[in-house]
Amino acid sequence: MSLAAGPGRGHVAHGQLPGELRLVVDKHVAYIQSLDTRRDELEYHLTEHLRIGGIYWGLTALHLLGHPDALPRDGLLAYVLSCLHDDGGFGAAPGHDAHILYTGYSVQILTMIDGFDALEEKMAGGKHKVATFIANLQQPDGRFAGDQWGETDTRFLFSAFYTLSLLGYMPHQRPSEPPMIDVQAATAYIKACHNSDGGFGVAPGAESHSGQVFTCVGALSVAGELDSYLGEEGKDRLGAWLSERQLASGGLNGRPEKLVDVCYSWWVGSSLAMIDRLHWIDQAKLTTFILQCQDPDQGGIADRPEDMVDVFHTVFGIAGLSLVGYPGIGEVDPA
Amino acid sequence: MQSHGIPRVAATTLDKSEQARNKERKQIIQYQALERDVVDRVKAKDYSDTTFQLTSQLLTQNPEYYTIWNYRRLILQHVFARELAADEEPSEQDSAAAEKANLPPAQHEVLLLIKEDLQFLIPLLKQYPKCYWIWNHRSWLLGTATKHLPAHSAVTLWQAELGLVSKMLGLDSRNFHGWGYRREVVLAIERLSSNGDGEKGSRTGNMVESEFAYTTKMIQSNLSNFSAWHYRSQLIPLLLSSRNADTEIRREFLDAEFELITRALYTDPYDQSLWFYHQYLMATLNPANVQALPVLEPCGRVQHARYLEREIGSVREMLEGAEDCKYIYQALLEYSGRYLEVEAEGGKVEVGEMRGWLRELRGIDPLREGRWRDLERKMGL
Ligand SMILES: [Zn+2]
User: Fold this and answer.
1) Where is the region Disordered (chain B) (predicted)?
2) Crossing angle for the helix pair A154-167 and A183-192, nearest 10 degrees?
């Protein structure tokens, strides 16, 4: 059981007027279910490195759409556990090397399908092993590497925080045990990535980027430091930068002067929600933009209207709709 | 990440002919055979040149396959360790070349291998400029060179990277990976040329002048480059300290930057990136914004107020002919709000005028109505 995460087979929408725009829930569910049946395409094989990501995105979308059981649990569980390495890390697909991002996705999937008992059955002390894999990737300056090869990125830091948090191994969740990671060093690193325009970059000195804003704000939020660190001034400044991401089409971009893209509905939207400034953008217009990016016939959501759909933009489009309270979609935790 | 900007085509046009499907099936079989071959060889610790060439083949077809990049590094690590541990006599020709490069033969061999791999990456980078793993591998190669080779040799490699990254940024002046890599390259060159006493991660600043000039060049070729303006803002504190700038020089410097950005804003007040830079310059005067290091030292309250007055005046003049430009009203409101905080008497700003700006802004920018409502309340307008 696995899902293709490359561009989908698409269809051109004909004559859907804005007034008729609605979320085609059944089509999206069917689209996600169909992703496992594309093994006859070269693309399916070339995107094997996106397999665990694809399952995580597809499953999250199904949960939000109210169809959590649309994919067979046993198949998902077997697949995820087949990506587990002896050191507690997960790869992107069976046989692929362990990496912090795919370990994070795997733990998210296990959480959604209630799979931690199965993890323990496969590997005694499994949860602790996974947590140790993550903790060992922390560098002396607080950052996290993605894997043994040492590349660091604020995305990895956020991934480490939420994964440990899901596993119950963040230091504040175990006050009586010696901490597995140095939270203070990690948040100090995030603060060094904070720019005077209010946003956050991928490393100290790097320009602000919505994706990095999401990971940094998310990490500060998991660490419980978001409100005390930013304060109202900091939230205003960050909120101003984020709200300027919305363009006339209603969609959001990732950086100044870039094109709008559905995936930023989530990165920007949830960051705004975490700092209580979601009302600083036009949520109705954002909703319309996301709905326009749907393939109304075959299901799935694309980065922009008329583009190829994929499961990544499908989940972030639906999560964006959930943030703004679109009827019939489950609630999403902004972090 | 994922598919971006790929036009959706009707499903019917994707219905492939039997011939096309056969062809695709064949491609899949070939791809999987190549993949199997590479994986089996690496699992069997076959770190031969053949295996290495096979990883090249596979990565050229699929540069996102991160595990194969890891395998490539395993092979290289193995080869480097073997070269550096070898005590066999090099050929006369090899020794001569090594001598010319001022390196022991084993290290010279490592240098050549690294250069070859850097070369392999160039067409891939050009084809996939946003692929994390290619930039990653490049950075690993340079890091490894720094570890195994003497500074004089490693620094030459890093300097060549500066040329490469300039070329990449010439092709796409906003490439995120490119700007990040540029920072890494500059740090490495500064560290390697500072007799090794530079602390890891610290900046000696000996490239700050040329980097600052680079941002000037980038901005001149295209004003609307948020990345270049941002980089410029990051260099300013370093530049001033490397120039040992005194109070007077700092003030002149700041004024020149204000003049530059004001001229640019007159050219295009609708350009967001220019306003971010103006905002940055103003933030350096604001002790409440700890993310912007002060340019003026010392910068007192009175000086802050004088700058606010001057800039409010200059921004107000930009309104003429650009009455529909929301950024002007945003700047006027932001700077006026701050002005009223530092200068209790107000003087140059009237609340009535601020209300008018806010009204205009709400008319032009209804998307952010919630923000303007909060601003109204916060400023008591
Ligand atoms: Zn996207």
Assistant:
1) 1-21
2) 150
Q: Which tens digit of pLDDT belongs to each residue from B225-267?
A: 999 999 999 999 999 999 999 999 999 999 999 999 999 999 9
pLDDT tier for residue B9 given thresholds of 50, 70 and 90: confident
ipTM above 0.95, yes or no: no
* Number of neighbours of residue A40 by Cβ within 10 angstroms: 12
pLDDT tens per residue across span B138-166:
999 999 999 999 999 999 999 999 999 99
pTM above 0.90, yes or no: yes
A-proximal residues of B, 77-116, CB under 8 Å: none
CA distances from A24 to A313, A314, B7, B11, B75 (A): 15, 12, 20, 18, 49
CATH number, residue A216: 1.50.10.20
Rounded Cα distance, A101 and A85, in Å:
14
pLDDT score of B381 more than 70: yes
Ordered by start, the domain boundaries in chain B are: 27-85, 105-206, 219-381
Between CA B142 and CA B270 the distance in angstroms is 41
> Could you list which residues have their CB under 5 Å from ion ligand 1?
A 261, 263, 303
Contact in structure between A131 and A150 (CB atoms under 8 Å): no
The verdict on B70 touching A (C-beta cutoff 8 Å) is: yes
Over 70: is that where the pLDDT of B13 sits?
Answer: no
Q: Which one, of A330, A311, A325, A319, lies nearest residue A6 by Cα?
A: A311
User: Residue B322 has what DSSP assignment?
Assistant: -
Nearest to B136 among A151, A196, A208 (CB): A151
Continuous H helices in B44-150: 49-61, 66-85, 92-100, 105-127, 132-148
Classify residue A188: in a domain, yes or no. Answer: yes
Residue A152's closest chain B neighbor by CA? Answer: B136
Contact B273 A256 (CB under 8 A): yes
Domain that holds residue A301: 182-335
CA nearest to A243, candidates B291, B1, B330, B332: B330
Is residue A158 included in any domain, yes or no? no
Cα angle vertex A247, ends A246, A248, to 5°? 130
Name, of A270-284, B74-88, B332-346, the range with top average pLDDT.
A270-284
Q: Which CATH class is domain B219-381?
A: mainly alpha
Domains of chain A: total: 1
Question: Could you tell me if residue A108 is inside a domain?
Answer: no
